[in-house]
Amino acid sequence: MNTPPDKQLNGISRQFIEESLGASTFHVEEHMQSLWSNQGRIIRLHSDSRLHPTAVLKQITYKQNTEHPRGWNTDNSFARKVRSYEVECAWYENYALSCEPDCKVPTALGIHVQTAQRLILLEDLSEQYPLTCTQLTVDQTRVCLRWLARFHARFMNNKGLGLWEEGCYWHLATRQDEYRNMAHGPIKAAASELDKRLRQARYQTLVHGDAKLANFCFSATMEKAAAVDFQYVGRGCGMRDVAYLLGSCLTEADCTHYEQSLLDGYFEQLNSALEQQMSQIEIAALESEWRALYSIAWTDFYRFLLGWMPSHGKINAYTRALATRALNIL
Questions:
Q1: Which site from 281, 282, 292, 322 is most exposed, i.e. has the minimal number of CB atoms within 10 Å?
Q2: Residue 114 has pLDDT above 90, yes or no
């Protein structure tokens, strides 16, 4: 039986999908989302495969002359995106299988590279992790922090070969367009030093690099989380992920009131996970260093926002307070 045609999947792509799934036929069950600047799509497939009746396909199609909703369609942004998909493939090929169930990520069922596109065929997490959210309670946020802590512990001191040398999608070296767009002020003046403090942290791990709420899915009881979208994974300080996550999950008031409690919970999980690989002295030193870098990481993201979208809602009193704290540290 032939696979039902899909105008965006050529014969080679269909053959790759069928062989990867061990299927004789499949169809597109759901269009999940379009990629940045219409550079492709993410779709859910249904097939007659016994092992993988459903799967998720990330179909990346390179188009340089596209429109970005906020005008960031420069050569730099295009090159960054191309590299990000190369990194994502490297992640799934060489690192994803090392993740334990407590930092669950999808398994790659196949990767196929063509001249003008990449195909990443992934395990469908929707049966075990069916829920996505646009905002979390403080307690639900702790579930994501537990995932981050276990992820950071799993890859502590990993060199991240083949990934971004510096993980995180907004770091200064790849955001020079936005930096030039910033108004002059104390944050712009401190940009290099903020970046330096994070890059030169003694303790480095692999960071997810885009650890926003939209990249997490949850079990039906909201007791477990899994993460997707590893385009910006690479070496870095774990506080980049933590700061970005909290800003995406919580209100300004919750960030203000629960900052210490949430950081305490993250470090409790991290320290527990590190007990088998680091001494108590090292664990304490790591926690001390990273706690001091929390405001630095948040302010580094503030620097990005000031150049990318200075009217962004995340630029609020809490963000400004952390910026003051960070500038006082420098």
A1: 281
A2: no
pLDDT at residue 9, as a whole number? 87
State the CB neighbour count (10 A cutoff) for residue 149: 26
Long-range contact list for 136-141, CB < 8 A, 24+ apart?
136/213, 136/249, 136/250, 138/250, 138/254, 138/258, 138/261, 138/262, 140/218, 140/222, 140/249, 141/245, 141/246, 141/249, 141/250, 141/262
- DSSP character at residue 110: E
The DSSP bridge pattern shows strands 26-34 and 40-47 to be: antiparallel
In the chain, % of residues over pLDDT 70: 95
For residue 75, pLDDT over 70 is answered with yes
CATH code reported for the domain at 11-123: 3.30.200.20
Tell me which residue of 109, 106, 240, 101 sits closest to 164, measured CA to CA. 240
Whole-structure pTM value: 0.94
Query: Under a CB-based contact definition with an 8 Å cutoff, are residues 234 and 207 in contact?
Result: yes
d(CA 37, CA 40): 8
For residues 228 and 215, the answer to whether their CB atoms sit within 8 Å is: yes
pLDDT, mean of residues 227-245: 98
User: Could you check whether 11-123 and 138-329 share the same CATH topology?
Assistant: no
> Looking at the domain that runs over 138-329, which CATH code has it been given?
3.90.1200
Per-residue pLDDT tens digits for 13-47? 999 999 999 999 999 999 999 987 778 999 999 99
Dihedral over Cα of 256, 312, 222, 274: its sign: negative
For the chain, the structural domain boundaries read: 11-123, 138-329
For residue 258, the tally of other CB atoms under 10 A from its CB is 18
